[in-house]
Amino acid sequence: MKHTEIAKILSDRKLIGTETTVCGWVRTFRDSASVCFLELADGTSFTKLQVVIDKSAVKFDGECSRLGAAVAVTGELVKAYKGDGVELNATELRLLGKCPLEYPIQKKRTTLEFLRSIPHLRLRTNTFNAVFKVRSVAAQAVHRYFHERGYYYVNTPIITASDCEGAGEMFRVTTASWNAKASSEEEYFKNDFFSQRAGLSVSGQLEGEVAATAFSKIYTFGPSFRAEKSNTTRHLSEFWHIEPEVAFAELPDIIEIAEDMIKYLIRAVMEECPEEMTFFDNFMEKGLKDKLNHVLNSDFAVCEYSEAIDILKKAKADFKFLAEWGADLQTEHEKYLTEQVFKKPVFVTNYPKQIKSFYMKQNADGKTVAATDLLVPGIGEIIGCSEREADYDKLVSAMKERGMNLDSYAQYLDLRRFGSVPHSGFGLGFERFVMYVTGVENIRDVTLFPRWVGNIM
Predict the structure, then answer these.
(1) What does residue 141 show for φ and ψ, rounded to 5 degrees?
(2) Which of 127, 159, 198, 445 is the most exposed place for a label (fewest CB within 10 A)?
(3) Beta-sheet strands, E only, within 353-430
(4) Element spanning 139, H or E
């Protein structure tokens, strides 16, 4: 169907005075004695197009005025009566798709919690139009950032036999029937599709390391899956993961890359989504744009884990969880460090080895590993980062301590036998980044169809 997108109409002043056809969904309808007004959205622009209808000259189906109805409007584009915009003086209005009165998106009901129950319709609201514009722009910027810097983009397996985190929180992949009988676990998996245990990948890191030892600089950007039963505003069972892996890079090098990438993505969103960012600043998080500009103009802080624990112990704050050396930082601790102490993003480095993954480089003190988490105000951890253990014997020792099956990681161990080099990488949860730059507080509101424990829609 020939028509002009609203985004083009609003951006091209040369179209004023021409006749055009616009298609979209009715967002609002206002009536008066002689004229009525439709506000149309087609998803191409955050700003809507006002349609002016002379009731004496244009006859139309009353269904066209229903909120949510799909219509096609032909008319003349003119300068708006108020402001610098444009509006459409209709000469013809056609109904494309009816929408009944029980259309669930009404102003009195459109809380984020309610909209979460109708993910197939919530995208038609201003909030989600803005969220997914930002998400799209940020995703393009991810690829642009790495491509401009000579990284190879690789696609790592979604189905894997290895648990990258070593925690066993994987979704099982199987073709065996629900009542399959077997005398042992070995027999069960032998008769399954891959003849061994398989699951959905929690990370592409291990395969990414393989690629980095051939191409030096690679990144992955794809889905990851976690079967942990975390019913929080920061966790999903399926999320998108940005994971660069860089050969000949130690921890300070990868920290520098992480900071540079975060700033690049923020800058892209602020430059390419000005209307959306103003909306978020007004309605989602007051001061959001100032916060992000502060990030762009600041050097991120770097703080040793031990120093962070000392700061938290001395803090005059009513923490729910005690800060003790050897324990992981809780969200309340992360927010305190970023919002009260440093007042900007901070890399916390050199964590105790017992609370971090097996693949992280063991420091000379024998107690910590060369790992860092990037903590940001309002969210907490957004990036997990480390230098990888390049020493074969140390890696094997760490895996044995955790009771891991070395045979399952034979290829990974081979990288430490054949030309091992210092190398580092990080993982950025893409949804958490989108939360950070939009001010959205629940990760389920930055995902098209969120999956979490007990919920798949």
Answers:
(1) -65, -35
(2) 159
(3) 368-376, 380-387, 423-429
(4) helix 126-148
348 CB neighbour count, 10 Å cutoff = 25
Q: Grade residue 168 by pLDDT with cuts at 50, 70 and 90.
A: low
For the chain, helix, strand, coil in percent to 5 are 35, 25, 40
| 187 contact partners, CB below 8 Å, separation of at least 6 | none
This model's pTM is above 0.90: yes
Which two structure tokens, joined as six digits, stand for 7? 């985004």
Distance between CA atoms of residues 46 and 124, nearest Å: 11
- Confidence label for 81 from pLDDT (cuts 50, 70 and 90): confident
β 152-153/217-225 pair status: parallel
Asked whether the predicted pLDDT for residue 334 surpasses 70, the reply is yes
Distance of alpha carbon 262 from alpha carbon 302, whole angstroms: 15
Three-class DSSP category at 99: coil
How far is residue 185 from each of residues 162, 188, 189, 199, measured CA to CA in Å? 17, 5, 6, 15
**Closest among 365, 366, 355 to 325, alpha carbons compared:** 355
Q: What is the distance between the alpha carbons of residues 166 and 180, in angstroms, rounded to a whole number? A: 27
d(CA 437, CA 138): 10
d(CA 372, CA 216): 21
Report CA-CA distances (Å) from 64 to 71, 86, 180: 6, 21, 55
Token pair for residue 124? 């038609």
Question: What count of other Cβ atoms lies within 10 Å of the Cβ of residue 61?
Answer: 13
Beta bridge partners of 153: 219
Under DSSP, is residue 398 helix (H, G, I), strand (E, B) or coil? helix
What's the CA gap between 78 and 171, in Å, rounded? 56
**pLDDT tens-place string over residues 16-60:** 999 999 999 999 999 999 999 999 999 999 999 999 999 999 999
Q: DSSP readout, 209-260?
A: HHHHHHHSEEEEEEEEE------STT--SEEEEEEEEEET--HHHHHHHHHH
Which helix (H) or strand (E) segment holds residue 301: the answer is: strand 301-304
Q: Cβ–Cβ contacts within 10 Å for residue 281, how many?
A: 18
* Burial of 24: CB neighbours in 10 Å, binned 0-12, 13-18, 19+: buried
Cα separation, 450 vs 439, in Å, equals 18
